[in-house]
Every structure is written in structure tokens, then in C-alpha cells.
Design goal:
It is elongated and about 55 Å long. The chain has one domain (about 10-140). The N and C termini lie close together (about 10 Å). With about 140 residues, the chain is mainly alpha-helical. The relative contact order is 0.15. Helices cover about 75% and strands about 0% of the residues. It has 6 helices and no strands. Keywords: Membrane, Transmembrane, Transmembrane helix. This is Sugar transporter.
Length: about 140
Amino acid sequence: MSIENNNKPLWFTVFAWVMVMWNLLGVATFALHALSKPELGRLPPEHQALYASEPWWSVLAFGVAVVAGLAGACALMLGRRQAFGCYLVSLAGVLVQQFYSFGVADSLKVLGTGSLAMPLFVLVLTLAQLLVAKLAGKRGWVG
């Protein structure tokens, strides 16, 4: 199967490649988060408690979000229609993880409003990937 399709605009191809790189960074971040513990002794006690109390389902949601996001990005890059479904799963993972962080753990109280920047960026980028995958399906850029 050829990944070249002359009907795809250049911005779409660039977007797909950038999203593969972005999602690879997400997988690496997840691996560091799940497999290694930072030196908690260097963190303030409130931060230590927040990190130590994270439930398994929040960590799992993080993993689902980044692995499904990477699968979606690869599918988009390869012109596969499965990208949309992968991105839906990724969005669900993002929402569950952010529900824990900001709804259950109330990390804003501990980390401050500055901690919103990255989660909001992740949410916006996840939605953008989903919308581009939907557009690609409508325009016939994926099959």
C-alpha cells in the first residue's frame, strides 16, 4: 500500500508527520511517568502526596490516550480510516485522566493555575487530530 496520495494537500501530510512525532513524545512521557518515580523528596510535601495518590486507572487512561493517539497519527500518515476511531479512544483517555487531575485530585489547588497550560494544549491538539481525521475521511484522503 502506498502512503503517497496526490489528492492530499501538503499541510495534511505535514500535520500527520508532526502528530506522529508529538504522540511519540507522549508515549515517552507516559513511560517515564509510569515506570519511574521522580525523587519525591525534592518535591514539596503537597506535590509528593498528589503524585503518590494517583490511582491506577488514571495512569491507565494516560497510557490509553498516548498509545491510541500514536496509533491514530500513524493511521492518518498511512492514509487509513482507522485514524478517527483511534483518536476517539485517545480523547476518552485524555478526558478520564484530566477528570482525575482536575476533578478528583484537585491538582489546581496544589499546582496552581499555571498547571492548566499543558493539559489544555493536549486537549486542543487531541480535538484537532480528531477533526482532521474526520475531514480526511470526508475528503477521501484516507480509505
